[in-house]
Amino acid sequence: MQNVLLIGDSKFLFQEEYSKINNDLDMHYIVANNGKDAAEIIKVSPPDIILIEGIDTVIDDYDILKISQKSGSYIPIILFTEKASVEDAVNAIKSGVYDYIHKPFNPEKLKKNFQKAIKYKEGKDAELKEVTHKEFQDELKIRGIVYESSIMRQLAKNIVKLAKSNANVFIFGESGTGKELVARNIHNLSSRSKYPFIPLDCVSFPATLLEGELFGFERGAFTGAVKSKPGVFELAENGTLFLDEITEMDYHMQAKLLRVLQERKVRRLGGKEFIEVNVRIISATNRDPEQAVKVQKLREDLYYRLNVVPVYLPPLKERKEDIPLLVHHFISKYNPTSAIQIKGIDNDALKCLMEYYWPGNIRELENLIHRIMSLSDHDTIEIDDLPNHLKEYKYESEHEIFDESLLKHSYHEAKKKWMERFNIEYFTKLLKRNNGNITKAAKKSGVSRKTFYRMLDEYDIDR
User: Fold this and answer.
1) How far apart are CA 104 and CA 113, in angstroms?
2) Average pLDDT, stretch 65-78?
């Protein structure tokens, strides 16, 4: 049986020629009088076919075409009309309508139209299933990234796509979010995977040593250079070079790096010959890259060279639904070397982990689980096993003072935005705590009722 959604006049279903088609093809109908009702039906229970009476129904505030395309399967849309022009028909087909039929219509011809639409749907669904299955199989090849949140699932899909590309990638996110892990997965899934992946932590070397690490040096190039050494560009030939914390690289050294990226040639310190290099660059920073450019921590010309494809790696506080999965992943990881085999974590302890804001992100969570397992004398992680600062934070989690996103703005802009957020939260919660009584709330706040009213109006706070 085909589930069919009719948008328009339900009387259409009872026409004699249409009733015959319905009996032959075994169709079950749901009728929506307008685009709004149709949109709700499609979201809840996507039909097999959509029939639309008149072109105006498609072109309204509830774009049926876009909504149907997001349903997870292909839904052919057949448009019935007797007024529209050829131009309207062409535009409808271009926008995604499967078929466009003028009234009055021939019953047999209409039946064939439906049969073709059903067959076409079956073919398109098979294609979608194959693509989805392939994407899922590609995702399974990703190693070490544990997730179930939508934001990380999208990141996983992007990793698979980036692996097929040769473009430079710029990963930015807070410390401890796993930037090198993402870079390694892009490399391992790429055509360069049989060649080296070379990571270089730019913050670990002063400028005088970093140049030699990057480009290599010849014997005698400087005091202590007793033998020649290739740089990471040579070592990563045909593979991937991961430049971690790129914004901590000396500003003048960034200019030398830019030249290498432009010319794809390096010259060792103390050397005379240029060496051609074929390397993909993946760079990373825990700073806001645009802000780093503004404060001259990152050269603008180098940023645009590196930032062909930007990848934002969210902090753990933005993907808290992944925490239970991560906890069990780390338990499994460290159980083989633990004196006591940990079976899991109790609900109170897990709730506490979910409420914490994790400034150290996944690295902090992993270290915590490892430490607890090393010291534990029982087989379940309990709330008493957690450090005091973490247990206490669950009562303070709503009161985080500083938001890293403010660093995108100048000092005065950031201060203004912070004050706006503070005022909204303060007056909203104070009013709620006093059950909406403005006189009591104003007294508690130490400001006049007039000022309290003004703040409510200024920040559009519900009373």
Assistant:
1) 14
2) 68
